[in-house]
Every structure is written in structure tokens, then in C-alpha cells.
Amino acid sequence: MAWGVQYHPEYPLREIAAIVRRIGLRLIAEGFFLDSKEIATFAGDLDMLDRNPGEKRLSWRYGISRNVLDKKLRTGEIANWLEYQVLPTRAKRGRG
After folding, report:
1. Contact, 64 vs 31, CB < 8 A?
2. Whole-angstrom Cα distance, residue 10 to residue 89?
3. What are the b/e assignments for 15-47, b being 16+ CB within 10 Å?
4. Could you tell me the residue ranges of all domains in the chain?
5. What is the pLDDT of residues 23-63, one digit of tens each?
6. How many other C-beta atoms lie within 10 A of the C-beta of residue 12?
7. What is the rounded CA–CA span in Å between residue 43 and residue 64?
């Protein structure tokens, strides 16, 4: 049996901003952004939201919900999976 998730809840917005900056030219080529200025604005806004999750103007602009902005909510599903599925399995095998 295998378990997996389709997203990376461990990534805070500042990490996503860094990724966007790093692969920016590819994102422009694929049509996600018009130019480097748009990338800088978007990444800067993500950095701002990471520092201030209560910035409603930016969270509304990008459709970023509290489930993403609140680390406990964002990582809750995977934390529960680890606590209730993975760790008990390890304990049963004598690795706990």
C-alpha cells in the first residue's frame, strides 16, 4: 500500500515566491506572466502575505484562502496522516 499527497503543504508562501523567481523565464514563456515585472510583483506579494497573512487585499486578489495562509490548517492533513497512519505503523514494526 502507498500513500501520497498531490500538493506541498510544507511550502510557505515565501518558498513559492522563491520558486517563481527562479523559474520566472519559463513561466513567462508558458504564458503565466507577461514579463519579469509581473513576476516581481507576484513574488513580492507572496512574500508580503507570508509575513502578514492578515493582508486581506492580497489574499483576495490571488484567491488564497485561510487554509493556505494558516500553517496549522495548511499542514493539518499531512500532520494527521503522519500521526495516525505512519507513526502507528512504525511502532507496530518495532521502530517506534
Report:
1. no
2. 22
3. ebbeebbeebeebeeeeebeeeeebeebbebbb
4. 11-64, 66-96
5. 999 999 999 999 999 999 999 999 999 999 999 999 999 99
6. 18
7. 14
CB count in 10 Å sphere of residue 90? 10
Q: How far apart are CA 78 and CA 50, in angstroms?
A: 20
Residues whose CB is less than 8 angstroms from the CB of residue 47 and which lie 6 or more positions away in sequence, other chains included: 13, 14, 17
Look up the pTM and report it: 0.72
Scanning 1-96, the segments in alpha helix (DSSP H) are 13-22, 24-29, 36-51, 56-62, 66-69, 71-81, 87-92
Looking up cell 494527521 gives 80
